[in-house]
Amino acid sequence: MKTWPKSLAAFQQLVNERGQSLRSMSIEEIARVAEAPEERFVFDGRESTIGIIVQPQKDASHRVVVQGFMKAKILGKNVALDGFYKWPDGSITEMSAEEFYEFD
Hints:
Oligomer: single chain
Shape: elongated
Radius of gyration: 14 Å
Largest sheet: 5 strands, antiparallel
């Protein structure tokens, strides 16, 4: 059985923490954070970025995705994602795993 490298698991945890902090914000606050440029940094010796995507939906919710990219050790990049729907009343619905495919 193949397992994630420790650094990728830690990077996913970092993305999840960003998502958790966004869940406590209002839609307006999330939209302001999403307007900021993506965060660029070095994580475990690898170039990495984290960006926030906010997509208003027809049903008045907003889809919020935290998208992280970390340079792979050999070729390519590793992707870490977290996401949810924020409703006008402040409630949250988690995104399904299948929905993340369009963000890889």
